[in-house]
TrEMBL record:
Superkingdom to which the source organism belongs: Bacteria
Domain Ribbon-helix-helix: 5-66
Stretches for region Disordered: 71-92
Taxonomic classification: Bacteria, Pseudomonadati, Pseudomonadota, Alphaproteobacteria, Caulobacterales
Pfam family name, one: RHH_4
The protein's name in its UniProt record: Ribbon-helix-helix domain-containing protein
Amino acid sequence: MPGLKKRSLLLGGHATSVALEPEFWAVLEDMSAKRKTSLAKLIAAIDGERGDHLLASSCRLTALAYSLSVPERARGRSPKEQPPSKPDVAQT
């Protein structure tokens, strides 16, 4: 997995930055596009709901929940673009 990608944004009038893996940014960008909102507004909403959790962790969890709840085609990806699944290994 490539390194972290840092983005700067304003949250509640304060400049901040969030560092996430590119794969998480891609999911958050897809979420914002599907919701017809900006990435900054999506992250502001995540920030408003995160409580005492770190913003980057909350962004990752939000992206993960979205990925698990939305079929591949609805996220704009065909199943062929996904990495191959690992075969089931029988336990002895």
